[in-house]
Amino acid sequence: MSGEESLYQALSAYSESDFYPCHMPGHKRSPLSGEMADFYRIDITEISGFDNLHQAEGVLWEAQKRANRLYGTDETFFLVNGSTCGVLAAVMAAAKPGDEILLARNCHKSVYHAAILQGLQVRYYRPEMIQAYDIFDGIRPKEIARLLDQFPCCRAVVITSPTYEGIISDVAEIAAVVHERGKILIVDEAHGAHLGICGAETEKDKGLDIESKRGADERRADLIIHSLHKTLPSMTQTALLHVNGDRVDRVKLHKYLSMFQSSSPSYVLMASMDSCVRFLEKYGRERFASMGQHYKAFCKKTENLNHIRIGKMTELSENCALADWDIGKIVISVKGTNITGKELSDILREQYHLELEMAAQTYALSMMTLMDEEKGWQRLADALVEIDGRIEKKQTQSVEKNAVFCEMKLSMSEAFHSPREEIPVKNASGRVSADFVMPYPPGIPLVVPGEQINEEAVREIENYLDTGLYVQGVSSEGRIGVVVEIP
After folding, report:
1. Interatomic CA distance for residues 326 and 301, integer angstroms
2. Which range of residues forms the domain containing residue 130?
3. Span 192-243, pLDDT tens digits
């Protein structure tokens, strides 16, 4: 395989050779192997000439180096088990069993899973809510500094930036306060693989106002996790893990990656990652420039909506902690109207055949990327204009929405392994949760194992269910797992 040849091209060429596979996979690349046969032709195992992801020295090493050059980090790893695999490996490489760790409470469930597996003692940063849109705000660097001074035994800090709704924190300043105290900063940037690449200067020159969308890789976080598939042209389950500096034990990181990655990594997925990187190298600037223009046209068409509000986060009060926001995350607020975010999502699906990313009680979220053409942006804008003309304001008293946080009574690991029972949600107040309870998407726990469920959490769970949202951790009979009380 030449340096100019992509992994996909090498796999395709091999599939057309006369080599016969006396090895797995069992489909043997046969055209007779069912309706998926066309996809099997490049699906191989670790054979001569195609390297081994767990000790990459050849074509996979070259492909990872190509991704590394694109992002400008010290080292980059392909992840075939999704960003979840990278989160698990990152957290467990940064903190030994029993260590303390500081987590932003709006982290994805995979971060909590790592804490359970490693038996970590968790301290929390509790983000505020942006009241205008009922979404989590960014992370305040000064508060991270205060908490690290209060809990100096914390080995690492884990934050999410951008959030599911596109809120970007000041990672540079957070990294500074974390590193001043000799700690490791892990940034779950799963939703921001597109940030800060493909020439910010070009975008600035064209006046697209997206030059400030910098990623955590440029801000020198120690470990950064990217889901390529979320915002870039790559197959589902493809992700990257980046490492910077010498604070992380890379030998240990390699070991954890070997544990959490499949021992039979998919060459189809790895070819998709390499293809994505090459696509960005060749077309990234052009596609991001087009995205900026499509976004501006979308904003122009929706600027006179009377009831629906399109989130423009940088127009918010100076009291907010966010440093920026991702224009690809279109927060569509129906707060104060006579429909819910779930109802809006249903209307867009059923009447306009527009499938949104997620729906909440007061907003819905559309994810747009550099691969969306003008017609996609305009279909969404036209639909919102029509719907806006049919809905009404709802005359209700304005109620400030605050994040629901429960008090920790047991460590997550203790609660997870304790005897449990199932009880109705309505009876759960005062009991210690044995499970995660979370609306999905986005997979941010409302309650984690070990927390004492309070009345506010019960009301919030019931509100989610009444709205028709899917809540993991609540059975179809409306029951929840709690720790058995010891007499």
Report:
1. 19
2. 53-274
3. 999 988 644 433 444 444 444 567 666 789 999 999 999 999 999 999 999 9
